[in-house]
Structure formats: C-alpha cells, structure tokens
Predict the 3D structure of the following.
Amino acid sequence: MSVRCRVPEQLYRRVREDLARSHEFAAERVGFLSARLGNRVGDESLVLFSGYHAVPDDQYIDDPRSGARINATAIREAMQRVLDTGDGLFHVHHHAHAGRPGFGWMDRRETPRIVSSLQVAGPDQAHGMVLLSNDFCIAHIWLPRAQKPVVAQRVTVVGYPLQFFDAEGE
Amino acid sequence: MTNDRFSRQSFLGEGAQEIIENSIIGICGHGGGGSHIVQQLAHVGFQHYRIYDGDIAEDSNLNRLVGATVDDCRRETRKTTIAERTIKDLQPDAKVKVFPCRWQDQPEPLRGCDLIFGCVDGFAERRELEACARRYLLPLVDIGMDVHCVENEPPRMAGQVILSVPGEPCMFCLGFLNEQVLAREGERYGDAGSRPQVVWPNGVLASTAVGIAVDLLTDWTRELRSVVYLEYDGNRNTIKPHVRLQYLPTSPCPHYPANQVGDPAFRTSMAAG
C-alpha cells in the first residue's frame, strides 16, 4: 500500500503564509488542512488537500514548553468540521529550517491524540499530520479506521513547476 | 541511470534526471500524437508509464503511428503493445503498465500518475479527461489536431497544446471547450467518417507537449509560470500563444471548484434519535 498526497500550489502558499505569521505568545502556528481520499479502493491511495483552516489566535494556550499548544475549542471545531463536511483533516505546522523536517517527540506524542479525535468524528476519512520545513514537506497519514500512520510516499505541490517531496528511501 | 547517456541534457539541472526517472506518466491514447510522445519520453529517460488505448494497429494508422509496422497491422497488434515495445527498446528497465482499453474503464492507475498526456479524440473525451485530472489534482497536457475542409478553399490544418493545471484556468475557462462545440460534436456522433490525420503536425504538437512536461517537472527554463494554450496553424507552420490567453478570467476556475476533489461520495445525515 502506498499513499501519495497532492496539494494545489495556491493552497500550499496560503498554508505557508498563515503559519509564518507571528503570534502574541506561541512560538509557532498550527492549522488544519481539509483532505479527501482518492483511489480509496486499490493499493495506490491518494490524499487530496482541498482547503486550509487557520487556528484563531485566541485558541492557543500559553505554554512555554511547547512551540504551539491549542485548546479544546480548536479541537472541537476541527471535529465539527469533519462532521459537517465529511472531509478528513490534517494537522499542519512548520519547522523553520531547510531540508527534510522530522516530527519531534512532542509532535509524535500529541498529534496522534488529535487524530484519534478526528477519527471518532470521521472514521471513514483519512486524517493525519503534515510538517513543513522552509523547503520540504512530509505527511503521516491515518487511513480510514487505521490505528497507525503510514508515511506519504510522495507529497506533490501541483503548480508551475510541480514540486515533489519524496519519503526517505524513495 | 548513472552513465553519460543523458549528458547532453544535463542542462535541465541537477536532480532533473532523477525527477524524470521517478515521475509516473499517464498517456491516454497511443495514436498519431501519443506514439510520438511515448517515443520522446523514452528518449528523455522516463521510467514509469501507464498507457491506455483500446485499439489495434490498422493499415490506416501507418501514415502516422510511430513505431507501428506493416507486420503489426497484419498481426493486429495492440497499440499499447507497440507503445511498450517502443519504450523497452530504449529503456529496457522501464516500468510500463499498459491498458488495452479506454482510460475510463480502468481509471485508478491513471489517477496515480504524476502527469497525464491527453491524446484523445473529440471534445467530449477531453472534457471527461480534464474532469478526472482536476478531481485528482493532476496536471494534464492535451494535444489535438484536425483538418477542416471547406468547399473551394484549401484544407485548413489546426491544432492545440494546452497545459491544464488544477487551480488554474481549465479548457472551459480558456474557451477551448464550450457547450456549443460539445453539442455539435454530439450531433455528429456516429457520423464522423474517417478524420484526416497526418504525421507531421502530430510531431510538432507532441514535441511541444513533451517540452512543456519536462519544463513543468524540472523547471529548467524557470519561465513556465502560468497556463499554456498554444494554437497550431498547419498551413502556415506556426505555433503561438492563443489570443484568448489575453482575456483569461481573473477569478478562480468556476468549473472545477477546489473542494470537488477525491472519490465522489454520498452521505446521508444520521436520523435524529
């Protein structure tokens, strides 16, 4: 089973612009990408990103131990969005360096909890987490009803030119 | 591929050959245009192909079907088999998946491609292919040509190359597709007769399309930053940006909204308890 992600360039730019905004106290911003599945049947699934939802300033919690921490309202609104739209949601944030980024220990501990909540609201959708660096993008995907994530084999930014971000070893 | 086979195209940039070799290319239609494209892609070094065509080689194809032989017609060889042979002769290790059917009959592998070449007949099929490409966020390079015969005038040979990228103007936005041409085509359905086709305009259009695709993948020109709509005039031997590009709508494409992606789904609301 391989999973590939695609994001339109305009949307990709919008995400980057939003995440680059400073916050009163949070060291970084987070957001959510809406996604739909393609090729649901078969061994080449596609995750197709279709929208972006910034987390409002007042839904951040001041926590010096984390880069960004969001409150229950932000999670609840994300779950409601899944219920309302039937879309999957991907938590997205940015690490300010060049090259392939890696999820930190806090990302690995906390984000799956958010994904679990999203899976409750939309068990038949793919959810997950996306991480940007200054020039790269990776994604971990929980396919419908999956307990564990798979790494996106390729993330494609669809625009002029096409940008490809391949998983390590690809 | 680590020999100097591609040294003459190293100007495409560091990493370009790796991008080319890792990209999955879909080709819908292995006729006059598609066969040129397949041959060129193999020369450039592409390694992953998914090729659709339900037809077999016939004598009437030999005036333009690159790679087809008299023997192929005698043996009723599938066009997809000819495509695979053309590629393998140049790239023996290439992964070639062939589908001797309409792409609509087995669309899943096509959706998994990184880029599609549309070498299909008619407006309706172009509409279907672009709708698929938009829904699965795939760039589509469309080529086509036709010869129009009007009484007492020399035949007019015309064609187009269009690069359709999700989020950007589509073939409807460009005015290439519209309800009138689709309706006219529908009225002629079953009465098409044999459509004039020759090898040289297909070569021009296919070469241009491959150039656009390589640029889209490698960004070697650093100039391809917007929609491509080129018109070919086979009588004057010119290819140039279509005049309609000057009048592109500034609003987002209304024909394929951003949220209309992925497998179509239908949900019912849960009954209140």
In short: Chain B has a mean pLDDT of 93. Chain B has one domain: 14-247. The CA atoms of residues 139 and 165 of chain B lie 5 Å apart.
